[in-house]
Amino acid sequence: MAFDIKMIKKVYKKYPEAVEAARKATGKPLTLSEKILYTHLWDGNASTSFKRGEDYVDFAPDRVAMQDATAQMALLQFMQAGKNKVAVPSTAHADHLIQAKLGADKDLQEGINQNNEVFNFLSSVCNKYGIGFWKPGAGIIHQVVLENYAFPGGMMIGTDSHTVNAGGLGMVAIGVGGADAVDVMAGMPWELKFPKLIGVKLTGKLNGWTAPKDVILKVAGIVSAKGGTGAIVEYFGDGAIALSATGKGTICNMGAEIGATTSTFGYDESIERYLRATDRDDVADAANEIKEHLTGDAEVYANPEQYFDEVIEINLDDLTPHLNGPFTPDLATPVAEMNEKATENGWPLDVEWALIGSCTNSSYEDLTRAASIVDDAVNKGIAPKTPLGINPGSEQVRFTAERDGLMDIFNKFESTKIFTNACGPCIGQWDREGAEKQEKNTIVHSFNRNFAKRADGNPNTHAFVGSPEMVAAVAISGRLDFNPVTDTLTNENGEEVKLAEPTGHELPPNGFAVEDNGYQAPAEDGSNVEVVVNPESNRLQLLTPFSPWDGENILGAKLLIKAEGKCTTDHISMAGPWLRYRGHLDNISNNCLIGAVNAFGGKTNAVVNQLDGTTDEVPNVARKYKAEKVTTIVVGDHNYGEGSSREHAAMEPRHLGVMAVIVKSFARIHETNLKKQGMLGLTFANEADYDLIKEDDTFNFTDLAAFSEGKQLTLKTVHADGTTNTIMLNHTYNEAQIDWFKAGSALNLIRKQNA
Ligand code: MIC
Ligand code: SF4
User: Fold this and answer.
1) What are the two backbone dihedrals, phi and then psi, of residue 319, each rounded to the nearest 5 degrees?
2) Active site residues
3) Pocket lining: 156 vs ligand 2, CB cutoff 6 Å
4) Secondary structure of 621-633 in HEC code, one letter for each residue
5) Atom nearest to 69 CA in ligand 1
6) 568: Cβ–Cβ under 8 A, 6 or more apart, which residues?
7) DSSP H or E stretch at residue 238
8) Residue 661 Cβ contacting ligand 1 at under 6 Å
9) What atom in ligand 2 is closest to the CA of residue 426?
10) In 507-648, where do the E strands start and end?
11) What is the pLDDT of residues 40-74, one digit of tens each?
């Protein structure tokens, strides 16, 4: 039986009427995305049609998911909201804090020892406020959500950018910062700019070595890392229907890498099969009753150009395996062209590690298809050149895979390491031997992201993203340019052999099984549960509210850093070893912007303190300005804040005295996070004005009193030689968001309202 089936049935009950109201309000047939959005309006059935990409709309999501690395901050904020219990079903998942080193058993125990304080905190907060807690080892948040909570036609938010995975079961699932989760858990509406719609029509059928991962690798190459910003990507067509539910999940999951708000697929038989296989006949039966509402209208899919803002068509018959990278997930290269491209760019062709796992590619099907390659190699007498690391997505997947002999197959390669059911190397939780030497090297993985330093902290590791089956093939060949479709390998008898095409099982033929899934249900009445935060702790720190705006213009501000080029949330608030401070704002602020490249001098973590002319690390300089009560600003390039949902990337600068972040363009979640924390997230009206910002400028915001929706703000810069520039700044704040700025943060407002 499914969790929260009553809630799901309630959602389905309102569907027919709400969808009809939306059709009437918009005067047209509807995409699936619109059906889900319009059935989840905070104010009930639609009475008007919203302008896509323009109107801010209040929604009522059905549930919330959080992972340990973001849940700490989300729940520290929720504790300040003055509520006894969460208003919608919510869960927290312990998956990001466990390091991969020796293998699952030892690593999990070590992870628990190292993070005990944090896990106890999460467990007790969850227990107190009615939140389900998935203990360390239970699995990666998005696989666990897909297996237990995602349901067609539902809407959820999660404090992780890959919450979008649940689109594989036909949800609108959106990654947000912790402060957004607090809104929903506190029973308030959740606001989102009504998204634009990108339709992706899939025709044909995947075949041979091509996998669902290649669909999104291809889409990322077409759309680019920021091309999906502000849009929902809806997949449809025969090719979409033919994909497995977890394959759909893979595609949606990595949609975060094109900046998309989320991605989704209509309810179909593969989704139904997955629901039934994961013990949710009740959800499948309920969904079947309203199934025409759980997919786009036929007219929309017949004439997509008329209903989507953009349409992309991919013929799966022609799609070939890809590897994307290095350093950015949208640099797509068909495997067949890798040799040429890698040679041209000096990417090392020998591969040092091959890693299968992460939230996007750790399903049972993924493991079976990768195992089939390993099995074939063993049978043909081919020894692997590169060690293979595997992180199963959940304990249910791991247990079933173990029972079905998949782990034995992987272990036939002596160098294989089965790591914990957790994020592991995907988020820098990887004690990789020799990484500190910072040697130039290549790794291949089935994760989502491959930003510099992400997996092992080494800036010279070139990471490439591919399907699990390609990763297995690369592990065997040891080469980045190995094309399993055409290339042969030499076996132990000196014969030239080819690897057979991957085969696998969409779902376990003998059903899923698990002994202990790692779930902890919350107390019915949590009022007596005590949540203890030791004031001496260096892992957890209760929050002190940020100060409200004093009503004055910000004058005499200094530049903390002008970041040049890619500045993702990994550059702003690095993960890996820093994940340990995710519950302690002051400590984690010591990583603030240390990965950003300074436009003046091109170095990371070296900026000039204009007060005394010294060069120092970014957090140190920020603390010095703060001590002298000098406000600072940060300037950045395009798609600033790409990647993670971590609100630390906004809270840290805020904590260190930065009041404005001015960039050419923002990634969606980060822009909202800045607003929520009471900061000014602004964009250059004229992009070229980025070049006017000098290292030793003084900055004056001259019209903050007139800060209002749709009106530009003015920045006067005074250069060291006394000359000045006037720079016009755009913003996307509505009146309610301007109130967050005035109150010092969105949370300050909630607290006031609940007082
Ligand atoms: C990631 O993949 O970057 C993370 C780690 O899962 C983040 C969340 C975080 O920073 O804790 C994300 O994707 O939102
Ligand atoms: Fe975890 Fe990696 Fe997925 Fe983020 S992308 S949730 S770190 S597995």
Assistant:
1) -70, 140
2) 95-96, 160, 449, 644, 646
3) no
4) HHHHHHHCCCCEE
5) 11
6) 451, 641, 642, 643, 644
7) helix 238-241
8) no
9) 2
10) 519-520, 557-562, 607-608, 615-616, 632-636
11) 999 999 999 999 999 999 999 999 999 999 999 99
